[in-house]
Amino acid sequence: MTSFEIKPESVIADEQSLRKLFSETHELAVQKQQGALDAHAQAFIRRSPFICIGTQNLVGQADVSPRGDPVGFVKILDKHTLAIPDRPGNNRLDSLVNILENPRVGLLFIIPGFDDTLRVNGHGSLVTDPDVLEGMTVNGRSPKLAIVVKVDEVFLHCAKAFRRAQLWNPEHFQNRSDMPSLIKMILDQSSGAPSDATAQRKLDDDLEDDYKRTLY
Questions:
Q1: How does DSSP assign 86-150, residue by residue?
Q2: Which of 129, 130, 147, 144 lies closest to 91, judged by CA?
Q3: What is the mean pLDDT of residues 110-116?
């Protein structure tokens, strides 16, 4: 694959040039932005089992991390404050370290079967307060900490992206077996996957066992 080079003349470098490409923002798109979690936003959050959290470090390097749990796992502390349990992961701690350096976070709440989403932007803190962690226990295991988000803005996002993607349409579901297993891809990218199919299958089974043991 040849290296791709961006043509300098095609680069949009300022907001004025950007906005010339688009029509005026619809009035409702401006008015829908809220500074607190109203009844609709709270109801959406209580139904959501999955979010994506976007963070940046001090120099602006960005990261997006998926977080999932039983429905309503994000705790609404008040109309300006949310708490997200931090479950066991790979211990890279990318999102958590970023929040220590730069507290600004963006959240996208997703509900299976819903094409519309909820976006929340705010400032995050890492908290070990037992009062915050209370009620976050699953399978007898409590999180070590929670990400507490002070809400700056919240708004509902339209369904166009999910409808374009046909995300919930079973006819568009792809066969996972068309790609290698997760552990094989990671080994291919690092130390190298075993050539023996039996050895690879053992690694795949070990990963599934690890999921069962360390999900919480």
A1: -----S--HHHHHHHH--EEEEEEE-TT-S-EEEEEEEEEEE--HHHHTT--BTTB--S-EEEEE
A2: 144
A3: 98
DSSP 135-194: T--BTTB--S-EEEEEEEEEEEE-SHHHHHHTTT-GGG---GGGS--HHHHHHHHTT---
Q: What type of residue sits at position 198?
A: T
96 burial via Cβ count (<10 Å: 0-12, 13-18, 19+): middle
Cα–Cα distance list, 128 to 50, 57, 118, 189 (Å): 22, 21, 26, 36
The string of DSSP codes covering 29-73 is HHHT-BSS--HHHHHHHHH-SEEEEEEE-TT--EEEEEEE-STT-
Residue 40, Cβ neighbours under 10 Å: how many? 12
- How many whole angstroms separate alpha carbon 78 and alpha carbon 41? 12
Kindly state the helix (H) or strand (E) to which residue 204 belongs, with its residue range: helix 197-214
Task: Give the tens place of pLDDT for each residue, 4-13.
Answer: 999 999 999 9
The radius of gyration of the chain from alpha carbons, rounded to an integer in Å, stands at 21
User: pTM for this one?
Assistant: 0.94
Distance CA 195, CA 199 (A): 8
DSSP-derived 3-state class of residue 21: coil
Taking the CA of residue 118 as centre, how many other CA atoms within 13 Å lie in the half-sphere pointing to its CB?
26
